[in-house]
Write a structure and sequence with these properties.
The protein has 153 residues and is mainly α. It contains 3 helices and 2 strands; from the N terminus they run H-H-E-E-H. The protein has a two-stranded antiparallel ribbon with strand order 1-2.
């Protein structure tokens, strides 16, 4: 009896790591992290000062107090400026991803689908014309066979 060798845990792990999806995901995480740094820099360097033209340049300093006394760490503060900054970061990230990645890719895929459809349409026309030619050849052969058949008898 031969004993079947099962892959070791290490072999399975190596196979898992070498899959295309895992490598693509790792690259996406690294690029996403770098992209997040760029977006945060844009928000802190451009957006915050523009919004801060009304008040302070740091959105984190915008807050509201829920208790009668808010000094230092006393009282209950709602830091809505931080939420506003995070919201702006999200909107900028979403806009950049949409306009620089999603929109061009969807236009490209639509163009490729239209080309494929046109190619298939042309292929069908060729198939139809070939079918018509074959029908004509068949009819001509039947006509020849019919006329030759009548001459023999």
């Amino acid at each position: 009896m031969s004993k079947k060798e099962e892959p070791s845990v290490w072999q399975g792990f190596k196979t898992f790591l070498m899959r295309g999806n895992v490598v693509d995901l790792a690259v996406a995480v690294v690029i996403g992290t770098a992209f997040t740094n760029i977006v945060n820099s844009v928000v802190k360097g451009i957006i915050n000062p523009l919004v801060g033209a009304i008040g302070t340049k740091n959105l984190d300093s915008y807050s509201s107090c829920l208790s009668p006394k808010c000094t230092g760490t006393d009282g209950i503060q709602i830091l809505w400026g931080s939420v506003l900054g995070a919201g702006l970061s999200f909107l900028i990230t979403a806009a950049v991803v949409y306009f620089l990645m999603v929109l061009p890719m969807s236009k490209y895929l639509a163009r490729m689908a239209a080309r494929q459809k046109a190619k298939e349409g042309a292929h069908e026309v060729i198939e139809v014309s070939e079918l018509e030619v074959l029908k004509e050849i068949r009819d001509a052969l039947v006509a020849q066979r019919g006329s030759g058949h009548n001459e023999r008898y």
